[in-house]
Structure of HTH-type transcriptional repressor CarH:
Amino acid sequence: MVDEALSAGAVARRLGVAVTTLRTWHQRYGLGPSEHIPGHHRRYTASDLARLEIMRRLTAEGVSPAEAARWARQAPEPMPNGSGTVAPARIHPTGRDGGGSIPVGRAGPAARGLARAAMRLDAAAISETIAHALAASGVVATWEGLLRPVLAGIGERHAATAGLIEVEHLMSRCVSEALAAASRANVPTGPARILLSCADEEQHTLPLEALAAALAEAGVSYRMLGARVPVAALVEAVNRTGPAAVVLWSHTRATADPTQLSALLAAPRRPLLVLAAGPGWRADTLPAGVVRPVDLAEAVSLSAAVRDSLDQSRRD
Ligand code: B12
């Protein structure tokens, strides 16, 4: 086994760093060789090398050594290769994140950490970061300060490189799960007066899921129809449940047919408020009477206000 594990010199050559740098990372950050056989120098295993690769890459990207070491220590173990020794297929010179990074603009360290976890396809770290932010800061702040910048960054990188589809899918799944957990933790009582739906053929559901979690947090009951709702089904749901407000999400021009909004306004049980939410809608094509929120916070406050006014009118 000793032969398959690596000496400090061999690791330094593989990573392109000095042996003294390895020694510093070992002494200061605990990222040292873990294989020890009496009578031999300590040797670096595959796991040690994988962690050091993360350390090298992140420090090269400008992350502070202490933060880089924190991420490196959290890295999952490499795939088993018989003995936990060096597994050449996994230790690829371009690193394990597919290269590059997700731009997050001026968002803070948590968003940068989330972007890195997304690049590593590290579902556990993604989920933990989101859950922590939701618990500490609530849904609206987590959406605006953490999730939106990373999602937009993934979209930006995808548009530039046509890559990152696997990152986008894993991230979407983790965001959905975290928002669903937040919604379940705060199930409001009372009738569901707000109906949430994506436009026909619209698959971008995350903003609506954020709205659902934010409404739950604010104690406002809702019904969520989810992705790709044909207009006839949407109108049927309105007629059967009589919501105070309908929020119809369109993310792209392709799904923003304004006749869906007109159908809501013409429904026998017309809602008090129809919100056209999302960047797909064009203000100049919206039917009169439809309101376009600017962001998540406004969508929450408009929904809460219309719920309150319906409840009030039923009491009077
Ligand atoms: C995740 C994602 C997906 C996931 C969605 C998973 C899910 N369950 O939602 C999947 C993989 C399914 C997907 C599919 C596709 N996607 Co996509 N996707 C994205 C991505 C990365 C994030 C989407 C998101 O949640 N954005 C949320 C925030 C970041 O968006 P925002 O525009 O800043 O939103 C703000 C405003 O809308 C405003 N706002 C106003 N009112 C309200 C109300 C509320 C309640 C809220 C919350 C906010 C709000 O505030 C928002 C911020 O909070 C975007 C990139 C992006 N920039 O959005 C691409 C993106 C939207 N997708 C894109 C494309 C092209 C597609 C596909 C067509 C790809 C394909 N070829 O199949 C399909 C579309 C299928 C369909 N018919 O819907 C393009 C759209 C380009 C365009 N403008 O037409 C984008 C922009 C990526 C890109 N740069 O190319 N996608």
About this structure: The chain has three domains: 8-74, 109-184, 188-313. Residues 143, 148, 151-152, 154-155, 158-159, 168-169, 172, 176, 201-207, 210-211, 251-252, 255, 277-279, 293-296, 299 surround cobalamin (CB under 6 Å).
